[in-house]
Amino acid sequence: MHSITVNNLTKKFGSFVSVDNISFNVKEGEIFGFLGANGAGKSTTIRMLCGILEPTSGDALVGGFSINSEPDKVKSSIGYMSQRFSLYNDLTVQENIDFFGGVYGLSGSNFRERKNWVLEIANLKGKENLLTGLLPGGIKQRLALGTAVIHNPKIVFLDEPTSGVDPISRRSFWDLINQLSEEGTTVFVTTHYLEEAEFCNNIILINAGKLVAEGTSEELKTNYINHKIIDIECDRTVEAMEILEKETFVLDTSIFGNNLHISVLDDVSAKKSVLALLEGKHSFRIRKIDTIVPTLEDVFIHLIEKG
Amino acid sequence: MSIKRINAIIIKEFKQLLRDKRYLFVLFFFPVFLLGMFGYAVNFDVKNIKLAVMDNDNSKESREFIKTLISSEYFILSGYIEKDSDIKPMLDNQDVQLILVVPQNFSTELAKNNGKPSLQFLVDGVNGNTALIINNYITSAAMNFNAKIQTGFAEKAGITSLSPINFQPRFWFNPSLETTKYLIPGLIAMILIVTAVVSVSLSLVREKERGTIEQIKVSSVNTIEMLLGKAVPYVCIAMLNGILVLIAGMLLFNLEIQGSYLLLLLTTSIFLLAGIILGIFVSVVADSQQVAFTIAVFLSFLPSFILSGFVFPIDSMPPIIQIITNITPAKFFVAASRSIILKGAGVSAIYDQLMYLILYTLFFLILAVLISIKKEKEL
Amino acid sequence: MNTILHFVKKEFLQFKRDPKMFIIILFAPIVQLVFLGYAANMDVENVKTAIIDRNRTTESRLLIEKLEQSGYFSIEYYINDYKEAEKLIEKGKVICVLSFPVDFDTKLSRGESAQLQAIFDGSDGNTASIAAGYMIKLVAEHSQKIVLTARDKSGKALLIPATISAETRNWYNPTLKTRNFMVPAIVGLLLMIVTLILTSLAIVKEKEIGTMEQLIVTPIKPHQLIIGKLIPFTILGMVSVVVVLTAMRVIFNIPVRGSILLLFVSSFFYVLSLLGFGLFISTISKTQQQAMMLSIFVVMLPMTFLSGFSFPIENMPYFIQMVSYLIPLKYFIVIIRGIILKGVGIGILWDEILILFLMGITILYFSSKNFQKKIN
């Protein structure tokens, strides 16, 4: 069962094509990662799916409703949290929750229950009367998520929810996302932290408005890279990279931290050649040389450079 | 104070200003456009007064008086009325501004020696100023009519004159008593100061809201350097604006500048500087764009309109209000620029206004710096 | 309906959090009304005058006394020649210079015409024309008195022809004070400024801080949002109406001759039309700065100059008169001056009130329409 179905969605701003004919499906209850560089078209896509930006062509069904013909129904079945924390800083926690609950038409015991739930997930029980503007970033963000899903939507869109938040708050925020997903909510999330993408059930990658890859994190790592990656730890890394670049068996080189990554077709013979070349011929000191599983970062850099 | 640091801020401000083409357009287009439009709208000339007549006498003499009245450029006859009850609704509805009632005995009384025929004029007095001028026109019309009768009589009686005092007022600088040229300098003052205060205060507070000022403060720039650096680009823009508006005024309204161009330019520059300092003062006091806008409007818009002497003569205000008029630099500019433009006055006639302007500027500059330093300490 | 109420509540809570703004909005108009109300006065009194008296007799002094006693002229200087006069006028020290010839009294006693000259600083055409009018009238009265007391050679009173006298009666404002005319218009001006400041930012502020995006994804409808914004501002606007009108009544002692109820009803429509303008600006602007520039240049300044507040609309060129039809303040000034000064009622003012109402509804409709719940 799909909760989002996107068909040939395109958005042009003048002559600039922001989203170029993309199609994909999102399964019910999954955490769906939507990745891409800044300006790749992530926010534009999300805004179209939320029914606040009209597509130039194409359509999408969100929660079973068309974003073109039933944007109002789309709006009542989704929650949305944008890059900026869209709460009123000059209202208290309680007032913000009351306002958004009211706008979504909640009332009675259901409202009380949801309000409690929001306060709980934001760790703000007993601090309802604090001004929202004075809350620390991590807490504010949890409150923003809570108010965005106060009406218990089936689908929630999170646009870069963790940008500008410290690593610990980020980790606990992802726990919250997992919790939502376990309760059956479909979570559609964009991020540029690739380690966060690992938490997603399914991922798509767009570049310059085009869809370039999709699948689970494992699938991406195995399907899109048909060569092996060797991680080399040695002295004079840059010099070593310059030497290896000239070799025909090396498809690609890049520096990862202090280490050197090279892409090759046959990792066993390549390791031997590298050792012979660097240690034998140029007397580098190699401390470690291993075949590694590519990270998503490897995959994306590879895909984007190829595209 | 370091010139280098001030320079860095000036360059940055200029770049930001020049990048925002739309804002620049607004800043340059509107002052000239509004001057062009309002210049045609501002005048107090009272002409074409709509007049209704109730002629109860209906004689040759009464018709002759009415004829002399409407042959002047001041009165237009919009109709006759028959009964008293028509008078009130006509005035209530503003159909006419003036109703003349000629009494039944007008011609018989006029024929008598020492007779005192009276004509009744009912004036819509709501606008006291216009009504007063209408009153004056009526008085003149009646006097002229009398003079005509008396000259005829004097000739017959062999007397030289029946008007012992021959009074002839003359009007200097503006013999036709047009009001537009007198109002244009005030209009220029108002448009320029509103533009300067609002644009400066909004830009600075916007930056404050966005937090970039914090960034600058962390660097070694001090408050005075920052204020100076920010003021310079706006002074340049405002100056350019001032020149454009003056040229537009000259071209559109045939404003002939009797005095020295250089002196006018100097006066305008000092005035604009005062306006910009006022804008900086507002931005220091206000923390949000909305508050800045509100203060800017209440400090620049209405005072430059009402307290500057632009429309309402300062001499007619109560003494306390006359003191309060010093709140707006437009007051000094209006006085000085009128003298230069209309009377051709030189430095000696206006140096006191210029001194006031400079004092005003310094006062608000110091106040802005003091408040800014105090606010910084509170942070 | 519930959604709108939540909106209204939120707006009021936000007012509460920004007391600085609230105080400014509530009290600034009163302070301004006091200053401006006392300042907005075109009465010409105490015209500063210099005298060149080359005659120095009781005859010349009699006339000078008469001028001074009238209250219209205040004699500031006695000078010797026109050179001095020129300086005084140029510096703005006097507006009028009155000059008596050497033979003023002898000519009068011989029954000849004596020349009396006055120079007025014409640069302020309005003041000059009014001042000259006063002087003409005073001199004519004086002249008439001399004629009446004159005797012919045999000592008999002169037989003179009839002179017509123009009795002017100034309706609504017998003393021709300009303050009562100006203060109600200032009320209109202040209401315009307050409501525009409030509403022109209402929507664009939320766009700038990002909450608008959050609101757009909720199921709230555009008209609900507009109405939700409108209600609190209307309430504030009406509070402002009450405050300013009360201040006008108490401080300037200007009685309302007509119906107070009608005054409030038409103020309500006026406020509504202004809120419409403000919200419209707010929906078309992208930033607060834009909204404020638009409201000052496109609304406030034109409204001030083209409303008939101080410059008669009849004098304006045809094209500008056309523009003035779009200005709510123009209608409100007619209404408020009509009700307060003339005591006229709905029978006469219905068309202005109707226009304000239609204007408000139309522009609010366009704001709501323009405010698509989309972003671009």
Structural features, described:
The complex is a heterotrimer of chains A (307), B (379) and C (376). With 307 residues, chain A is an alpha/beta fold. Chain A is built from 11 helices and 14 strands. Chain A has 2 domains: 2-221, Rossmann fold; 225-306, Alpha-Beta Plaits (2-Layer Sandwich). A 6-stranded mixed beta sheet of chain A has the order 6-7-8-3-9-10, with helices on both faces. In chain A, helix 4 runs antiparallel to helix 5 (137-148). Chain A is elongated and about 80 Å long. Helix content of chain B is 67%, strand content 9%. Chain B is α/β, with parallel strands linked by helices and 379 residues long. Chain B folds into 2 domains: 3-42 and 178-378, no CATH class; 49-157, 3-Layer(aba) Sandwich (abc type-2 transporter like fold), CATH 3.40.1710. Chain C is an alpha/beta fold. Chain C folds into 2 domains: 2-41 and 178-370, no CATH class; 47-149, abc type-2 transporter like fold (3-Layer(aba) Sandwich). Chain C is 65% helix and 9% strand. Chains B and C meet through helix 2, helix 4, helix 5, strand 4 and helix 6 of B and helix 2, strand 4, helix 6, strand 5 and helix 7 of C. Strand 4 (118-124) of chain B pairs parallel with strand 5 (165-171) of chain C, so a sheet runs across the interface.
Summarize the structure in short.
Chain A is α/β, with parallel strands linked by helices.
Write the layout of secondary structure elements.
The complex is a heterotrimer of chains A (307), B (379) and C (376).
Chain A: E1 2-13, E2 16-27, E3 31-35, H1 42-49, E4 57-62, E5 65-66, H2 71-77, E6 78-81, H3 93-103, H4 108-121, H5 137-148, E7 155-159, H6 167-182, E8 186-191, H7 194-197, E9 202-207, E10 210-215, H8 217-223, E11 228-234, H9 237-245, E12 252-256, E13 259-264, H10 267-281, E14 286-292, H11 296-306
Parallel strand pairs in A: 3-8, 3-9, 6-7, 7-8
Antiparallel strand pairs in A: 1-2, 1-4, 4-5, 9-10, 11-13, 11-14, 12-13
Helix pairs in contact in A: 4-5, 5-6
Chain B: H1 3-19, H2 21-39, E1 49-55, H3 60-71, E2 75-80, H4 87-92, E3 98-102, H5 106-111, E4 118-124, H6 128-157, E5 165-172, H7 180-210, H8 212-218, H9 223-253, H10 261-285, H11 289-307, H12 319-324, H13 330-343, H14 347-378
Chain C: H1 2-17, H2 19-39, E1 47-53, H3 58-69, E2 73-79, H4 82-90, E3 96-100, H5 104-109, E4 114-121, H6 125-149, E5 165-171, H7 179-200, H8 204-209, H9 211-216, H10 222-252, H11 260-284, H12 288-306, H13 318-324, H14 328-342, H15 346-370
Parallel strand pairs in C: 1-2, 1-3
Antiparallel strand pairs in C: 3-4
